[in-house]
Design a protein that fits this description.
The chain has 469 residues and is of the alpha/beta class. It folds into three domains: 3-59, MurE/MurF, N-terminal domain (Udp-n-acetylmuramoylalanyl-d-glutamate--2,6- Diaminopimelate Ligase, Chain: A, domain 1), CATH 3.40.1390.10; 75-298, 3-Layer(aba) Sandwich (UDP-N-acetylmuramoyl-L-alanine:D-glutamate ligase), CATH 3.40.1190.10; 308-464, Protein-Tyrosine Phosphatase, Chain A (Alpha-Beta Complex). It has 16 helices and 21 strands. The protein has helices spanning 30-35, 61-72, 91-104, 124-136, 148-152, 174-177, 180-192, 209-213, 270-285, 290-298, 326-336, 358-369, 385-393, 399-403, 417-427, 456-464; strands spanning 3-4, 15-17, 40-43, 54-57, 81-86, 109-112, 141-145, 163-166, 199-203, 219-225, 242-249, 254-258, 261-265, 308-310, 317-321, 344-348, 372-375, 410-413, 433-437, 444-447, 450-453. The radius of gyration is 23 Å and the shape is globular. The chain starts with a strand and ends in a 5-residue tail after the last helix. 50% of the residues are buried.
Length: 469
């Protein structure tokens, strides 16, 4: 008897959990589940079912799905060390770094997240199945990206976390959470799940860190830049443990000094210094020696779609990145602007059916920091790409833009993302840096449900290989 939440996948004898969705209620599909042979129906409201079928009414179908799935698969999160990473930015990079550290230490570590899964954090039944697979195959650890959506929807309910990490909280996902307070509450949920045996690792330089620390029932260890050490003085947690005391960013690599280990990495930028510090602290928390942690971090040369450089012999640099929030876009531009010997050229757009408030904010950031901006289509979903672009353009004309005299900078719009990338590459000259932003590792664009194959990295490679330099 398996646990299913998709009525189409129900087989004879299965339990069907009718979870309420944003657009459709799973209860609508109970007849199909019954027709496919479901013998147990779990739902939040009473429904008529035929004789011979068990019905269970629950207060939360999502929590029931998580609990039933965990039980069905033998509570796999308690059979390995599960490390959860949450925050607006940095989740993917931190999880990759931690996995590499664990592997260097001789452990067999799995990874579940944005790049490996259809959703950043899978639905609870799928997550428990994946954790069970890891246990069966001899994995000792799993590093999991935990999204705010997953927390709000109880996808990680019934999971036991050895370590939970908070990276940061900035403007994003307000189409779903509505307010930053609601967004914060979702993030806090991971830390309320910890027990006396678990450890919380928190970026204390982030303004939301106090709110995160306030809900942790047990021990907290912080990380951050050296000047933030005073922020950790509290009876709630330990003295400052992981300190980034120096960061030297060069054209293609960065040196980060931590406690007092010196790490050399191609993952450049202050934001990556924080990511490295989070991973470093996690390694220490798990009892791994600093020398092994250093080896693990330095072994990571590239993370798919995260500041991924495309080199095809061209005299300018091309970097593809996933940045899709105001803060992540700003950090990316601020990282590469000092490194550009010529112009900083930006190609980006915003997805449809998502947080509209961030569009003009990102437009203002782009025009303020890039030398040439081409606004284009991301994943429009059900929206008109031209309308999305217009809303991004509103940021060009904000008062702060006029005051900083950025109107003299150049920008244009090209709805076709391929044409936008092609234009950026055609105007790039020696010493320029081209940033193609927003989609990173993604391989398809979504036009109102129609999936169109489109990988920024492959498009760049195909365009560059036809040119002679």
């Amino acid at each position: 008897m398996a646990i299913k939440y998709d009525s189409r996948k129900v087989k004879e004898g299965d339990t069907f959990v009718a979870i309420p969705g944003l657009k459709q209620d799973g209860a609508e599909f109970i007849p199909q589940a019954l027709a496919n042979g479901a013998k147990v129906i779990v739902a939040e409201k009473e429904v008529k079912i035929p004789a011979g079928v068990e019905f269970r009414k629950v207060s939360s179908a999502r929590r029931a799905l998580a609990e039933l799935s965990a039980e069905y698969y033998g509570n796999p999160s308690r059979k390995l060390k599960l490390i959860g990473v949450t925050g607006t930015k940095g989740k993917t990079t931190v999880t990759y770094l931690i996995q590499s550290i664990l592997n260097k230490a001789g452990y067999k570590a799995g990874l579940i997240g944005t790049i490996t899964s259809a959703m950043t954090t899978p639905e609870s039944a799928d997550l428990q199945a994946e954790l069970a697979r890891l246990v069966k195959e001899g994995y000792t650890h799993c590093v999991l990206e935990v999204s705010s959506h997953a927390l709000a929807q109880d996808r990680v309910h019934a999971c036991h976390f050895e370590v939970a990490i908070f990276t940061n909280l900035t403007h994003d996902h307000l189409d779903y959470h509505k307010t930053m307070d609601d967004y914060l509450v979702a993030k806090q949920k991971l830390f309320t799940m910890l027990d006396g045996e678990s450890m919380a690792i928190v970026n204390v330089d982030d303004p939301a860190s106090r709110s995160i620390i306030g809900v942790v029932p047990g021990e907290v260890i912080g990380y951050g830049l050296v000047e933030a050490q005073h922020e950790l003085r509290s009876t709630k947690h330990n003295e400052f443990d992981t300190v980034v005391s120096a960061v030297d960013i060069r054209e293609r690599e960065m040196t980060v000094k931590i406690n007092p280990t010196e790490i050399r990495t191609p993952l450049i930028g202050i934001h990556n210094a924080y990511n490295i510090a989070a991973a470093f602290q996690c390694g220490l928390t798990l009892g791994i020696r600093s020398v092994i942690i250093k080896e693990g971090i330095e072994a990571v040369k590239v993370i798919p779609g995260r500041q991924e450089e495309i080199e095809m012999g061209q005299p300018f640099r091309v970097i593809v990145d996933f940045a899709h929030s105001p803060d992540s876009l700003q950090k990316l531009l601020e990282t590469y602007k000092p490194l550009a010997k010529g112009k900083l050229i930006l190609v980006f757009g915003c997805p449809g059916d998502r947080d509209r408030a961030k569009r003009p904010i990102m437009g203002e950031i782009a025009v303020r920091l890039a030398d040439y901006t081409i606004i284009t289509t991301d994943d429009p979903y059900s929206e008109d790409p031209a309308v999305i672009i217009k809303e991004i353009e509103q940021g060009f004309f904000r008062e702060e833009s006029r005051k900083s005299k950025v109107e003299s900078r150049k920008q244009e719009t090209l709805i076709s993302r391929k044409e936008a990338i092609e234009k950026a590459l055609s105007i790039a000259q020696k010493g320029d840096i081209v940033l193609i932003v927003g989609r990173g590792h993604e391989k398809f664009q979504d036009f109102n449900g129609r999936k169109v194959e489109f990988d920024d990295r492959e498009v760049v490679k195909n365009l560059l290989k036809t040119r002679k330099f």
